[in-house]
Write a structure and sequence with these properties.
Strand content: 5-15%
Helix content: 40-55%
Number of domains: 1
CATH topology: Rossmann fold
Distance between the termini: 43 Å
Radius of gyration: 16 Å
CATH class: Alpha Beta
CATH architecture: 3-Layer(aba) Sandwich
Shape: globular
Length: 138
């Protein structure tokens, strides 16, 4: 499958995603020359570039009927990833880890041949007490 990362997603994730999901292709705004395009037009453009899945941090697209319909009409699956409002590594690590964890499950669903599907992912963990089972000195 070919995945498009919307401009609100960190474009640096593409290399990491490609190294993990080698059977799939990840492209972004630079590759598709799509920076600044309106979402309704962007869905058709992304589909015309043979993409199958639209990955975005704009979760409100599901609530905007014209955008949701344009994505469906383009035949694209949609993945919404919560953006992390933090600094440093958390900005990339949060959304990237959530997407890496979710993609095998999403791919399982998409191989069942459904009409365009959407997947709104849960927020990534921001608190170390939610990440660690236990931690301490060795």
């Amino acid at each position: 499958m070919k995945f498009f990362l919307d401009e609100n997603m960190n474009q640096g994730m593409m290399g990491h995603l490609t190294s993990i999901f080698r059977a799939h292709e990840f492209v972004g705004v630079r590759e598709l020359c799509s920076k600044g395009m309106e979402d309704v037009d962007l869905f058709r453009h992304v589909a015309d570039e043979s993409c199958d899945v639209f990955v975005t941090g704009d979760l409100a697209q599901l609530k905007r009927p014209a955008e949701r319909q344009a994505c469906r009409d383009a035949g694209l699956h949609w993945i919404g990833v919560h953006q992390v409002h933090a600094s440093g590594y958390h900005v990339v690590a949060g959304p990237a880890s959530t997407l890496v964890h979710a993609l095998p499950f999403i791919l399982d669903q998409l191989t069942k041949g459904h009409a365009p599907q959407y997947f709104q992912l849960k927020k990534s963990e921001r608190n170390n007490t939610q990440i660690f089972h236990r931690c301490g000195e060795l």
